[in-house]
Structures are given as C-alpha cells and as structure tokens.
Design goal:
The protein has four helices and no strands. The chain is mainly alpha-helical and 79 residues long. The termini are far apart.
Length: 79
C-alpha cells in the first residue's frame, strides 16, 4: 500500500510541475506575488528608525520572515 501511495504522490508532483512549466511558458507569473512597494518602503523606514523586526512585522501585519528577508536583501544591496 505504501508503494502505491508513493507512486500516486510522484504522479501528482509531476503533473503540478508540468502545469507550472506550461503556465510559465505562457508568460504567467508562477511564484507568490511580490510585497507591495509601499510595504517595502515602510519596512525600510521602520527598520531605519530602529524598530526591531518583530515590532515591524506586527505593526505592518506581515510575517517576521518577510521582514527578515527584506532586511537581508537591502543589506546585500539586492533588488
């Protein structure tokens, strides 16, 4: 039974990957939507004011990980 479940899971995974590739080939955006520019600027401003990442995430109602990733991206000079 377990091998049948693994096989079914592999088939589903292949179909999902094929669908994503097809959508990407059609020019559709496949990943999560980007954080709005206004929120990105608010994150930068609040972090610049000395608030902690936890405080910023609560104040803007975004995940802590989102604030952390954005802070890392701005430190490295990325996008």
């Amino acid at each position: 039974m377990a091998s049948l479940a693994q096989f079914e899971s592999a088939l589903i995974s292949q179909r999902v990957r094929a669908g994503m590739a097809r959508a990407k080939a059609q020019g559709k955006h496949v990943a999560r939507p980007r954080l709005a520019q206004a929120k990105q600027e608010a994150i930068a401003q609040l972090l610049g004011e000395g608030l902690s990442m936890n405080q910023v995430s609560r104040q803007l109602d975004v995940a802590y990980g989102t604030v952390y990733n954005y802070a890392q991206k701005t430190k490295s000079g990325g996008d």
